[in-house]
Amino acid sequence: MKRGAPLLFAVAALAVLAAPARADVVVQALGSARVAGGESAKARDQALDDAYKQAVGQVLASLVEPAVREAKADLIKKRISRRARSYVVTSRVLDEG
Question: How far apart are CA 11 and CA 2, in angstroms?
């Protein structure tokens, strides 16, 4: 992977909320990370984590009112964004480089 190259990441069937309030949607998200010290595998994993967070953020933006997101920003960051990968049902890398 080239230095600073982004990973383009598509997320399919993203389950964002708990089972009773489940929302399955398809989104595309772009994740990126810099390759430091030749550790391309670590950078790839960081870019995927970034893409998961972006995807979950897109879905939250479509499901939760802006005022609620703003009021609960800290809670969303601690409980949802940090575990974004766990909300993704399936995913596929479209491009990287």
Answer: 23
Cβ atoms of residues 13 and 26 within 8 Å: yes
Question: Which has the closest alpha carbon to 55: 91, 22, 19?
Answer: 91
| Residue 45: burial class (beta carbons within 10 Å; 0-12, 13-18, 19+) | middle
CA angle 52, 28, 65 (to 5 degrees): 75
Please report, in angstroms and rounded to a whole number, the separation of the first and last CA atoms in the chain: 5
Question: Each residue of 35-55: pLDDT tens digit?
Answer: 888 888 888 899 999 999 999
Which uninterrupted H or E stretch holds 11? strand 6-15
pLDDT in tens, 52-77: 999 999 988 988 899 999 999 999 99
d(CA 83, CA 16): 11
- pTM listed for this prediction: 0.73
